[in-house]
Design a protein that fits this description.
Order of helices and strands: EEEHEHEHHHEHEHEEHEEEHEH
Radius of gyration: 22 Å
Oligomer: single chain
Low-confidence stretches: none
Strand content: 25-35%
CATH superfamily of the largest domain: P-loop containing nucleotide triphosphate hydrolases
Distance between the termini: 36 Å
Structural class: alpha/beta
Largest sheet: 6 strands, mixed
Bound molecules: adenosine-5'-triphosphate
CATH topology of the largest domain: Rossmann fold
Amino acid sequence: MSEPVIVMEGLGRDFKVRDGLTRRTVTAVGALDARIDAGEAVGYIGANGAGKSTTIKMLTGILVPTRGSATTCGLRPVPDRRRLAREVGVVFGQRSQLWWDLPVRESFRILAAIHGLGATQETERTDELVERLELEEFLGTPVRQLSLGQRMRAEVAAALLHSPRLVILDEPTIGLDVLSKQRLREFLVAERRTHGTTLVLTTHDMGDVERLCDRVLLVDRGSLVWDGTLTGLSRTVGARRVLVVDLVESTPDLLGIPDTEHLGSEGGGLRQRLAFDAEHTTAAKVLAAVSERVEVLDLAVEEPDVEDVVRRVYASRR
Ligand SMILES: Nc1ncnc2c1ncn2[C@@H]1O[C@H](COP(=O)(O)OP(=O)(O)OP(=O)(O)O)[C@@H](O)[C@H]1O
């Protein structure tokens, strides 16, 4: 059996919050039990407020658990936080870890010094990351002038500069365009293949999970409700895809198309969205049925999104 990189045993966290004049306790994370082995890529998913960020904060020593324990890279996150920082790289999609006014290159130099990298190690690793993440053109640019896509690539490079064996990413592709998302995912796949890095990521984007993760942990109200493959999870609720059609003329809601659910209309019915279950029908069949009623100008098929799967798993449990 390979070495565990993360072990959670009954891990939980409560918060005391003020509610008017009274104080009440919010359980952000109930009691998690899970083990993540070296080299795994795990998607940690759940609805807003399910407890994902709180878990990550406990695993990286930012928050003290109220119950149970966590071991990350064989260390206790809070007391061993400094040693842990050498083993883990953390990327927060919504928070920068770079020096805003400094050129990207300078941030890398400071981080290399903080991590005590030798000169050769620093050059080799920086060159590798600059090439793989295509950072060359903006290495001399202050971070505050970067586009979101450029900044995220720089953030990832900064978090991985010291070649951590565990990389935790909190919403790494949030707000990125399709191309930037794809580049970032390709980089993470390559990094894992080359260095055997363990990846844990929280995301609301099914594409991240599909392309990066071989295991999914789904959390609901602070407890684990699924631990397995994404395909297995999708099968529990039937993974739905969405056909988006742009129509020649304003059309009333396309109800009653076999094996579909009408999700919504925009522009007075010029664009409509129909969910269908890929196990029972195909996009082509749905399109044919729509075309019998109205002329279709353009179409797109959307992947199932995490929110939809999560919502339906939650609904089936309540
Ligand atoms: N510092 C805090 N004080 C009080 N309550 C908190 C605090 N941090 C988190 N919570 C509460 O704990 C619960 C879990 O929050 P958490 O941020 O871990 O969820 P999340 O799954 O990461 O959500 P999101 O997808 O929106 O980032 C929420 O109900 C949140 O309001």
